[in-house]
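Input record (one chain):
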Amino acid sequence: MRRTILLLTLGFLLNGNALADDERIAPDWTLQSVAGETITLSEAVSEQPVLLYFWATWCPYCKAVMPHIQDIQQEYGDDVRVLAIHFRDDKGDPVAFIKKAGYDFTLLPDGLEVAKLNGIWGTPGILIVDKDMTVRFDLYQLPKLDLSAAGEAPSHSQRAALLAPYWADAIRESLDAVIGESSK
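The corresponding structure, as predicted from the sequence alone:
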């Protein structure tokens, strides 16, 4: 097990991306946005790369990375579309949460089945899908950071605050690669 983790981490560092050598094709799906728009993944990626953000209102990691995702959406403009897929959250109000925070993601509620299709089991989950429906980034495949310098047992909120910028940098790196390839 340790050898496998070491090899995956080494592969990430050598390849400069968050995926192993074998490509993964994203399953196609259709959801309704809270604005009433019908979103089909294959149609969305035909226009630009799509960042799929799986989240819940109760998740401290989601709350920490959301401002970074909003910044990414603003930085990249029409070069990327962010789809915020809400799941595993029976008590939260995702519409009120997004509105209060001032985020302008396309909000897709009832995303549990789409999360399952994509192998997303916990929050947050972040994927970047290119025009060929290839998953070019998967947050779950990033190497783990050593947070021991943050203290004996940092809280989830403290861990989230430390991890969010690292995740955002990895997302930007992946988007730069995807957008750079599509402009050739």
